[in-house]
UniProtKB/TrEMBL annotation, chains A, B:
<dbReference type="InterPro" id="IPR008927">
    <property type="entry name" value="6-PGluconate_DH-like_C_sf"/>
</dbReference>
<dbReference type="Pfam" id="PF02558">
    <property type="entry name" value="ApbA"/>
</dbReference>
<dbReference type="InterPro" id="IPR013752">
    <property type="entry name" value="KPA_reductase"/>
</dbReference>
<dbReference type="InterPro" id="IPR013332">
    <property type="entry name" value="KPR_N"/>
</dbReference>
<comment type="similarity">
    <text>Belongs to the ketopantoate reductase family.</text>
</comment>
<dbReference type="InterPro" id="IPR036291">
    <property type="entry name" value="NAD(P)-bd_dom_sf"/>
</dbReference>
<feature type="domain" description="Ketopantoate reductase N-terminal">
    <location>
        <begin position="13"/>
        <end position="160"/>
    </location>
</feature>
<dbReference type="GO" id="GO:0008677">
    <property type="term" value="F:2-dehydropantoate 2-reductase activity"/>
</dbReference>
<keyword id="KW-0521">NADP</keyword>
<protein>
    <recommendedName>
        <fullName>2-dehydropantoate 2-reductase</fullName>
        <ecNumber>1.1.1.169</ecNumber>
    </recommendedName>
</protein>
<dbReference type="InterPro" id="IPR003710">
    <property type="entry name" value="ApbA"/>
</dbReference>
<dbReference type="InterPro" id="IPR013328">
    <property type="entry name" value="6PGD_dom2"/>
</dbReference>
<keyword id="KW-0560">Oxidoreductase</keyword>
<comment type="pathway">
    <text>Cofactor biosynthesis; (R)-pantothenate biosynthesis; (R)-pantoate from 3-methyl-2-oxobutanoate: step 2/2.</text>
</comment>
<dbReference type="InterPro" id="IPR051402">
    <property type="entry name" value="KPR-Related"/>
</dbReference>
<keyword id="KW-0566">Pantothenate biosynthesis</keyword>
<feature type="domain" description="Ketopantoate reductase C-terminal">
    <location>
        <begin position="191"/>
        <end position="312"/>
    </location>
</feature>
Length: 325, 325
C-alpha cells in the first residue's frame, strides 16, 4: 500500500511554502516539464503577476507563468505534496494537507529536524508520508525571487510508523525520476531516521553555535575551543541516534569536521533566519531530538544547553519584532 | 606563624591595581586614617596630580593626595598587600609581591574565581596568603575616578596549603578592624575554599550567560529556559564543590535564584569587561573550577560548554582590538 504513485504518466506536484527551498525545487520541476502548483502567502500578488525568478550558478531563469494560489481550497489534488514551510508553521498543516493530497498521493516533508514526518502522519496516515533532506544553500531574496547559491541534492526516505526502516519503494524511484529530470541529485535512503540523525550531526552544532556566538563556520572551526565543542555536540547527537538504535560512526563525525574546515565561510540557515528576525526552527532541530533521548532516559546536556540558549534568544527576538515569514 | 600582623599600631597597606575594587577600598581605608600606597599604571599621572575621586551612594569624596607609584621598587614594604588586579594580569605578581610584602606581612587576594591564592602562595609562601571575596558593584569610570554603585562587603578567609580549612586567625580580625573602621562590612570565613565555591554558584551562571547571551540578570531570570539553565549550572558548581569536599545545599541554590529574581536589572562585571573590550577572567572563574573537577575525574559538561563559548568570544575580542586594561 502506498508504494507506488499509480500509472499516471505525469505526476502533479503541490508546493506548500514557496520560499528558498520550495520555490527553487518547484521552479526546477516545472522548468523540466512537470505540472506544479504553488501555495503562497505574502508573495502571491507578485508571483501571480510576474512569475518566479531563479538565480543559480547553474542557470538563471524566470518562469513568467506559474499556477499560484493563495488558498489551498483552490488547488487541484496532487500526487506529491511538498512541505517546504518553515516547521514553525506546521500548525497550519492539518488545514492544508487533507485538501490537496490525492487519495493515493504522498506528502514529501522537506523540512529540517527530527520527528516532523510523524506529525504529518497523524494528519494523513503513515503510509502517505515521505521525508526529504535537502543539502542546499538557497535564500529567498525578494517576493518570488530565489537565489540558489550552491549544492541542491535531496536524500529521500520512506516514513513508516515509529520510524521503522522503510526500505526503497517504487514511489521513491518515481519521485527521483522527476527530480533527476530537473537536474536535482537524489539519493535514496532505506532508513529515513538514520538519515535524519546524520544530518543533525552537522545541523545541531553549527546552526546552534552560529546563532549563539554570532559566527560563521570558518570562525567556529578556527578556534580550538569551539572546534572541540562542535565535536562534543556531534558526539551527543550520535548518542541520541544510538538511543533510537541508529549507529553513527566516529569517522563520520571526523569527516563532518574535516569537510566543515574545508568549506568556504558559511552563514547557516538558522543564523540567516535569526539575523532577519524570522522564527527559528529550534523545536524541530533541537527540541525533538532532546525529547527523543529524554524519553529513553538519556541526557544530552550540551545540546540541552544550546536549546535553552536558543529559546532565550528566539523568545527575545519575537518579543522585539512582530513575526516575519 | 603568620597568624598575627605584629604589634604595630597602624598597619600599612599596598593596593596593587587601583581600579573599581582596589581604588574604592584603598580610598576608603585612607579616608579612615590608614596608610595606603597605590600602584598604578595608565592612571599614574592623573592620580599623582589630582588624587582619587570616589562617587558612592554612601558618600562622594576626593582624596587630593595619595601615595601613588608607577614602579613597585619605589613602594615601602607593607603589612597587607591587596591584590586587586584583573586576574588576567597575574603573570605580573612574581615581579611585584616579593618587593612590597613585609617579612611578616600578608597578601590579600581580592580577585574573583578559584585557585588564585594557591598561585600567590607559590610566590610568597602559603602562610602569607589570605583571600577576600568582594560583594560589590563598582566601576572605574575614568582615570582615578571610581563609581561605587552598591554593596561592598568582603568575606575574608585564610589560605592554607591545598585549601585546608584555615580557621579564623588574629590577623583576620586585625584586617577586619581596619576595614570596619572604613565602614566596609567584613565577614570572617573559617573555610576560604567553601566561600569561593559559594560565590561561584552565582558568578558562573550569570557572568557567563550575560556575556554569551548579551543579557542582564533580569532578562535571564524572566525567561524560563535560561532560568532553568542557570539553576542547572549552579548544580554543576555544587558538584564541583563536592569533589573538593565542600557541601553546597540545595536551599542555598534556591536562595541565589530567588535573590537574583528580586535584584534590580544588573549587568555583570564580566559583561562590562566584555562590552569594554577588556580581557575576561575566564580562566579564574571557569577554567580553574573545571580543572579542579576534572582532576578528580568529574565532568561538568555545561560549565565546560560555557567556558568554551567564552574562550571563543574572548579570543575574538582580543583579535579585534588591542588589549585594554
Amino acid at each position: 500500500m502506498g508504494a507506488s504513485l499509480g500509472a499516471v504518466p505525469n505526476r502533479r506536484y503541490a508546493i506548500l511554502g514557496t520560499g528558498a527551498l520550495g520555490g527553487f525545487y518547484g521552479a526546477r520541476l516545472q522548468q523540466a516539464g512537470t505540472e506544479v502548483h504553488f501555495l503562497l502567502r505574502s508573495d502571491y500578488e507578485q508571483v501571480q503577476q510576474q512569475g518566479l525568478v531563479i538565480e543559480s550558478p547553474e542557470e538563471n531563469f524566470t518562469l513568467p507563468q506559474v499556477y499560484a494560489y493563495r488558498r489551498v481550497e483552490e488547488m487541484p489534488r496532487c500526487d506529491v505534496v511538498v512541505v517546504a514551510l518553515k516547521s514553525t508553521h506546521n500548525h497550519l498543516l492539518p488545514a492544508l494537507l487533507p485538501r490537496v493530497l490525492k487519495e493515493d498521493g504522498v506528502v514529501l516533508v522537506l523540512q529540517n529536524g527530527l520527528g516532523l514526518e510523524a506529525e504529518v502522519a497523524q494528519i494523513v496516515g503513515a503510509e502517505r508520508v515521505m521525508g526529504g533532506l535537502c543539502f542546499i544553500c538557497s535564500n529567498k531574496v525578494g517576493p518570488g525571487h530565489i537565489r540558489h547559491l550552491d549544492y541542491g541534492a535531496i536524500t529521500l526516505g520512506e516514513y513508516a510508523a515509529n520510524y521503522q526502516v522503510g526500505g526503497v519503494t517504487e514511489r521513491m524511484s518515481q519521485i527521483a525520476q522527476d527530480f533527476t529530470q530537473a537536474s536535482i541529485s537524489i539519493h535514496l535512503a532505506a532508513d529515513l531516521l538514520l538519515a535524519r540523525w546524520r544530518k543533525l550531526v552537522w545541523n545541531i552544532p553549527f546552526n546552534g553555535l552560529s546563532v549563539v556566538l554570532n559566527a560563521t563556520t570558518d570562525a567556529l572551526m578556527a578556534d580550538r575551543y569551539t572546534y572541540a565543542l562542535a565535536e562534543q555536540l556531534m558526539r551527543e547527537v550520535a548518542l541520541g541516534a544510538k538511543v533510537q538504535s541508529r549507529a553513527i560512526a566516529d569517522n563520520f563525525i571526523q569527516e563532518m569536521l574535516d569537510d566543515t574546515v574545508k568549506m568556504k565561510p558559511y552563514r547557516t540557515s538558522m543564523k540567516i533566519d535569526y539575523d532577519e528576525g524570522r522564527p527559528l526552527e529550534v523545536e524541530a532541530i533541537f527540541g525533538n531530538p532532546l525529547r527523543a533521548a529524554q524519553a529513553a532516559g538519556v541526557q544530552l546536556p550540551q545540546i540541552a544547553m544550546l536549546y535553552q540558549q536558543l529559546k532565550f534568544l528566539s523568545d527575545r527576538t519575537r518579543a522585539q519584532s512582530p513575526e516575519k515569514e
